[in-house]
Design brief:
This protein is mainly alpha-helical. The chain contains six helices and four strands, in the order E-H-H-E-E-H-H-E-H-H.
Length: about 190
């Protein structure tokens, strides 16, 4: 009887994030040359720090990716790895960490896009970012056998984090001297 072969290894984040960061820097510098308006040093710092923040979030959310393809891979059906029950199944530590993870996102958005100033718009952006994370985790789980699961509570926590970050910036920008100082960071 012939044994089927199993493939098991882990994809570390630097294999993906180093090339992505290099492409991001190339895009940033080529875009700055093509753009008619110049960006100042403060705006450049916002762009670079936002890129670093996104790389860190991607590292936390997806890596390492455990690849497990073969005879005993994916024994649990993919639909059993999704938590559809909100609130009642919350792991408080994970929930709070997910809130904290997207607070900076909510803080960056008003600096990256001046037209995004509504609570509803930030909630939508935070939800869409979180939904894309959860769907990509599911896709990786189904295709590569990664141990990550998708959870509706992560959607709630990430959306709440984006909203909290936005509210922090909006509150700080109401203070007149800070408002004028922070304006130089807006793109």
């Amino acid at each position: 009887m012939e044994e089927s072969m199993s493939i098991m290894f882990a994809i570390q984040s630097w294999y993906v994030l180093v090339p992505v960061s290099i492409l991001g820097l190339i895009w940033l510098f080529s875009g700055a040359k093509r753009q008619k308006r110049k960006i100042n040093l403060a705006q450049f710092a916002v762009l670079i720090s936002f890129g670093i923040y996104l790389l860190c979030v991607i590292h936390l959310v997806f890596f390492p990716i455990d690849v497990n393809i073969g005879r005993y891979a994916n024994q649990t059906p993919w639909y059993m790895t999704i938590n559809f029950i909100p609130i009642l199944t919350i792991d408080l530590t994970t929930f709070l960490l997910n809130v904290l993870m997207l607070i900076p996102f909510g803080m960056y958005v008003p600096f990256l896009n001046q037209t995004t100033t509504s609570f509803k718009r930030i909630a939508k952006l935070g939800f869409m970012l979180s939904l894309s994370f959860e769907l990509l985790q599911l896709l990786i789980r189904v295709s590569l056998g990664s141990g990550r699961s998708s959870d509706i509570n992560d959607l709630l926590a990430n959306t709440a984090g984006a909203i909290i970050g936005f509210l922090i910036v909006k509150t700080v920008c109401k203070i007149s001297p800070l408002k004028n100082m922070l304006k130089q960071f807006q793109l």
